[in-house]
Design goal:
single chain; alpha+beta; 14 helices; 55% helix; globular
Length: 394
Amino acid sequence: MGEAIGNNIIKEEELRKIIKDLNEGSDIKKVKKEFDKLIRDISPEEIANVEQSLINEGVPVEHVQKLCDIHVQVFDDALKKQGKTKVLPGHPVHTYRMENRELRKKIRSLKAGRSDFLSHLKDVKLIELHYVRKENQLFPYLESVGFTGPSKVMWGKHDEIRTLFREIEEDYNKGDLIAVKKKTRGLIKSLKNMIFMEEKILFPTSIRKLPPQAWSAIRKGENAIGYSWIEPGNLWDADIVSTQSTDAVSSSSGTKSGMNDKIPLDTGELTVFQINLLLKNLPFDMTYVDENDKVAYYSEGKERIFPRSPGIIGRDVANCHPPKSVHVVEKIVDALKKGEKEQAEFWIQMNGQFIHIRYFPLFDLLGKYRGIIEVSQEVSGIRSLEGERRLLDW
């Protein structure tokens, strides 16, 4: 037993050295040769653990992110030998794998010279739902067990792929076929590398690190986001914790204990059922982050602007944003906490919509900071209003 632990420590130290050598610009062929000679039975979790420890030690996430594609090359042979952990249809990992199988088929027909190239590109772009589920459902549960590497590194790789999709579409509309061909090759390579990293590192490691209850919660929140091309199976039963299902039914009918008890407010009183109904029907999205920077609530309206799912509840707000923007989020939160700003305001154009985003700090009667609310609203219609329309004109 002690000998096995010692061998694992030695192996991880060798891995650490290889990754650091890559970080410092060592030749890939030389490092791969060294790797093949020293370590022949590497496991996905060992690679993930070393990358996690490097991030914990202060190696910039951007560096590890840039190394991902190189890691795929260096560890390719060893990881290909790894068997696939079996999971039943309906399990989140099985669904991810089904989507990857469809993606492999679709990228084979993604050729820049085709007359219907743009429609194929938009079809492949549906992989976005796959990535959003990872970011909002899988990553929060990995973070809850101290495994933050995937959310910090893979989210950045997702954004690189999103950028390629956007740039290819822009170049195509400009008629720059040379750029389209070059970037399409890069996109296909990035998509294939992501599949490899998911199936050979992320998913096997996640299966070992997360308990069945976590997978149950992940599965129950997936429908709020959706799926890429497929529907999940039903052989794997997500109702492991029976009380969750019971509470959900009671909540939806308003008969849960305490749901009809009046709660006194500053102006009036409402039941829990009424409060929930009111918040779910706000004409904008609202998210509440508490004083400890944890997501405590989001309104679940009919038409969401940004993806949200139950997995983000309790998540550190910094982890709810792409790595490249985390420092800005922290700067905003800090300024609002200190009272240096009364609000932070932004507006973006997305999918033909004009989105207005505002952040407001909350303080109690004693002036103590109690969190932030984020309000997001599609305001294209409001911006186009002219003249006036009075109540009697309705």
